[in-house]
Every structure is written in C-alpha cells, then in structure tokens.
Write a structure and sequence with these properties.
Blueprint lengths: L4 E5 L3 H16 L14 H10 L7 H20 L3 E5 L7 H10 L5 E6 L2 H14 L4 E6 L15 E5 L9 H14 L5 E7 L4 H7 L6 H17 L8 E8 L4 E8 L3 E5 L4 E5 L4 E8 L3 H10 L3 E7 L5 E7 L1
Parallel strand pairs: 1-4, 2-3, 2-5, 3-4, 5-6
Antiparallel strand pairs: 6-13, 7-8, 8-11, 9-10, 12-13
The structure holds N,N,N-trimethyl-histidine.
Length: 323
C-alpha cells in the first residue's frame, strides 16, 4: 500500500531564480566578494555534502548521531511532541532516530520535512511515509530563513534544526532566525537545535579541508551552479579551496581564491566580474559555539533551555529548548 504524501510548495521557480540572481549580483559586485552557502546544494552538491559526512576528518555528523542515539528517547519524552518538523531535512537520515523514539513514546502523529530541494524532499517524504504507516507526512518546500510563518501549526511540535546548519548564519541573521522561529511556536512546542562546538583549531580546519579534496570540490561546485543556472563562464579549476578558522568570530570560513587575473561573464545578469590573482570570495561561514554563548543566544530569542546535551568528547551539542 502506498501512503499519501502531501507536498506544500512555497518556492515557485520565480522565487528561487530571483533570490539566486539577487545574491550573486550583490555578492560578486561587493568590494569583498561573497556568495551565500545555500547555492552549494544542487544534486551534485548534495551528493558531495553526503560524501563529506562520511570523511574521517568531518566529525560533526557522527558526533551528532552519537548524541541522538544516546538521548532520542529522553528528547521525545521531554518534548512531549506528537509532530516532528525538520528544517533542512535533506535525506532525513538522522530523523528516523527521533521518529522511532516518538513512536516508542506512543506519541507520533505527523512528520513535516522542510527543504528547498523538491527531489530530496519528495524522496525522503515517501520513504518515511512508507516506514511509518498511519503517520501524516506533510512535506514543505520552503526557505527556512523566509517562510517560518507558513509552516503547518497542527499538533504539539518539535522543530528540529540539525547538523549545525544554524552556524551558516552570521550572528545577526541567527538572531533574526531564532526570534522568528520562537514567534511561530505555540506553548508546549519545542526546538531541537544541533550546533558544532569550539574545539582545537587544527581539527576544525581539517574538517573543512580534507585530504581527499571532497570539500574543495564541494566549494567549487557553487561556480558550476552559477555556470549552469546563470550562464556564467567560471573556470572552477582556476579557483583554490581555502578553509580557515577565524578565532575572533569563532567560525570557519570557506573561500575560493582566484589563482590568476581573470574576468568572468555572468551572462544572465549582463555582468562581467573581474578577479585579481589571489583575490578571495567568501562562500561559507560555519560558526562554532561555546555552550554559554549558545544558551545566551537562545534565551535572548525567547527560548528556555530544557536540556543541553553533548557527545562524551564535547564536540557537538544538541539543545532541546522550549517556549
Ligand atoms: C551542512 C552547514 C552543517 O557547515 O559544516 C560541510 C556544510 N561545509 N563542509 C557545515 C559544510 C563544508 C555543513 N553544514
């Protein structure tokens, strides 16, 4: 028997196209060039990211799984949730640990994955609908920075934002995001937030500059996305992958460094972008948190921390927070 999956789409083609055009024009005409990380994730980029999560150097995914495996039942019980909403759900690999725990608690009624990629979203939604018959799967295609207010409100919800993706937002954007999310929660709803923690700089840098060069390929992939989507003529191999840890801001920065002078046409934008040899374009920040700072940010956004969990090595945090 096939389970019906409901798909709610808040991203028409025009919306994605407009935000891509806007981001690229803004970022590449700035004095210090930058591109937002959300454009890494086309099919090839999502596949590269999934390879990253299996790299020996990339600890966050495995550490978060350790916390989830050890505490899923506790999280399900403390949250009291019957509905799981997952922001940036991707392949929903970690999700089954939470859904199984909610099912064991006898509470599971609905799952709402939220992602920008329709294919990933549809696959995950169908797979989980088949695994949990009787559970309402309502997939929402949306940009979690823009469409929080449009998420389904039914049930007692736990909103999971895993993987440390919150670290891709700069502090100001994080405050807007957390405050906006808090405003959409009803009494009894909870947030389950995954956040990578500050640690030895060498380990941090290696996690974003792996020996096999997968992260480098992931970083350059954004240029392939611009070539395809905006008719640009980047030579991705003319850019070097750079990963550094900014100790003042507690974040990893990924950059693409031009290895020679060049001029890149972005056909669809009617733009010609000059790069000088050695010039760096920032493509991602990935913030690393200190437990106190993370608690402070959550409480400033109006959350109450219910449980602050980490793996035994203190590498990665999973925070359950209430209203
Ligand atoms: C998916 C955002 C959590 O910041 O660690 C992995 C993305 N970038 N390697 C992260 C990423 C480079 C990842 N997140």
């Amino acid at each position: 028997t096939r389970q019906a999956v409901e798909l709610i789409d808040h991203l028409d083609r025009g919306y994605l196209r407009q935000s891509l055009e806007h981001d690229v024009r803004t970022g590449l005409t700035a004095a210090a060039k930058w591109l937002p990380p959300k454009w890494f994730y086309d099919a090839a980029g999502s596949e590269l990211f999934s390879r990253i999560t299996r790299l020996p150097e990339y600890y966050p995914t495995r550490r978060e799984l350790v916390v989830l495996r050890g505490h899923a039942d506790e999280i399900a019980r403390l949250s009291g949730a019957d509905t799981l909403v997952e922001l940036g759900s991707g392949t929903s690999e970690k999700t089954v640990l939470l859904l199984d725990a909610m099912e064991r608690a006898g509470a599971l009624r609905a799952y709402t994955p939220v992602d920008v990629d329709a294919v990933t979203l549809g696959d995950a939604a169908r797979r989980l609908a088949a695994r949990y018959p009787g559970v309402t799967v309502r997939a929402v295609r949306a940009d979690f920075e823009r469409h929080l207010a449009l998420l389904p409100r039914a049930g007692r919800r736990m909103v999971a934002f895993l993987g440390g993706t919150v670290g891709n937002l700069d502090p100001a954007a994080r405050e807007v995001f957390l405050t906006g999310l808090r405003a959409t929660l009803a009494p009894g709803d909870t947030l389950l937030l995954g956040a990578d923690l500050v640690k030895d700089t060498g380990r941090l840098v290696r996690a974003y500059d792996d020996a096999a060069g997968v992260t480098a390929a992931f970083n350059r992939n954004v240029l392939r996305v611009l070539n395809r989507e905006l008719g640009a003529d980047f030579d991705p191999e003319a850019f070097a992958h750079v990963a550094l840890y900014d100790v003042r801001n507690d974040w990893i920065e990924m950059r693409l460094r031009a290895t020679r002078d060049m001029r890149v046409r972005i056909g669809d934008l009617g733009l010609s972008v000059p790069f000088t040899a050695g010039e760096e374009t920032r493509t991602e920040i990935s913030a690393k948190f200190r437990p106190d700072g993370l608690r402070r940010e959550l409480s400033r956004a109006g959350f109450t921390v219910i449980r602050f969990l980490t793996d035994p090595d203190g590498d990665f945090a999973l925070v359950l927070a209430g209203t």
